[in-house]
Amino acid sequence: MINLNGKLLPKEKASIAIDNRGLNYGDAVFETLRFCGGKIYFWEDHYFRLMASMRILRMEIPMNFTMEFIEEEIFKTLNFKENEVTSFRIKLLVWRKTGGKYTPNTNEIEYAISFEKLTTPFYILEEAQCEVELFKDHFISSGLLSTLKTNNRLINILGSIFAKENDYQNCLLLNENKQVVEALNGNIFLVSGSEIKTPPLSDGCLNGIMRKQLISIINLMPDFTIEETSISPFELQKADEIFITNVIQGIVPITKYRKKEYGNLVAKSLLPKLNLKARMG
């Protein structure tokens, strides 16, 4: 089922207008959520990120668009009572109502909620190969708009095609200053000894929910220091570990970049702490 503005519809019957502003102008934001054990992981963080993104894009937030209301709509879409123990990937998409060209006729919004089942009830560390390369055909612009989860994802799409055509499992994206910003589907962390680095939001990386959680976890680990700082491509081959983070997969260790192969000991040590925080948060 699809939840379209509060109305549940079979997926094949859910439709939007051809002049939908999200479709025509990329005038939309979204949240990708993980639902496990009867709860939405890090729901409060997701909600406040969504509200901040809508304000930045000058969308009008309805009075009833509270954290409780949206959570109820998500549970209604999942048929919560029947699927409480099932794990899901949920997409909450919000767009400005139809009307206007570049200048909208209204700032009022519409929304849709969709979902698909996940195979694991908690975060696991995949042992699969994850070889990456730099994607240098196009660059992320540093600045506020790049940190938002909008549906303007052309660089991610083109980078994914490049990775598929060249047998890479992922790519790392650069900004206009040739600094490493993120992976195709998540934020990145570099481990060198006891030092862990992740790019700052000012470099244009996504303001990731999992990024925020891991920074919080690492800050409580006395054996490591975490720094939000710009990362040069030259640092990649010097690192002991590199891993990608997103709210669906959790932590994905990179195994190889060019001639350098990486371990995953720090990623393994973070995983149980992450699962505990997800269940308790």
CATH architecture of the largest domain: Alpha-Beta Barrel
Number of distinct beta strands:
16
- CATH third-tier fold name of the largest domain: D-amino Acid Aminotransferase, Chain A, domain 2
Count of helix runs: 7
Oligomeric grouping of the chains: single chain
Mean pLDDT: 96
Structural class: alpha+beta
Strand order of the largest sheet: 2-1-6-5-3-4
The level of helicity is 25-40%
Task: Give the topology.
Elements: E1 2-4, E2 7-9, H1 21-25, E3 28-36, E4 39-40, H2 43-56, H3 67-78, H4 80-83, E5 88-96, E6 109-117, E7 131-140, H5 154-165, E8 170-175, E9 180-183, E10 187-192, E11 195-198, H6 209-219, E12 225-228, E13 241-246, E14 250-253, E15 256-257, E16 260-261, H7 265-280
Parallel strand pairs: 7-8, 7-15, 11-12
Antiparallel strand pairs: 1-2, 1-6, 3-4, 3-5, 5-6, 8-9, 10-11, 10-13, 13-14, 15-16
Helix pairs in contact: 6-7
Question: Can you describe what's shown?
Answer:
The protein has 281 residues and is of the alpha+beta class. It folds into two domains: 2-117, Aminotransferase class 4, branched-chain amino acid transferase, N-terminal domain (D-amino Acid Aminotransferase, Chain A, domain 1); 131-280, Alpha-Beta Barrel (D-amino Acid Aminotransferase, Chain A, domain 2). The protein contains seven helices and 16 strands. It has helices spanning 21-25, 43-56, 67-78, 80-83, 154-165, 209-219, 265-280; strands at residues 2-4, 7-9, 28-36, 39-40, 88-96, 109-117, 131-140, 170-175, 180-183, 187-192, 195-198, 225-228, 241-246, 250-253, 256-257, 260-261. The longest helix has 16 residues, at 265-280. It is globular and about 50 Å long. The mean pLDDT is 96.
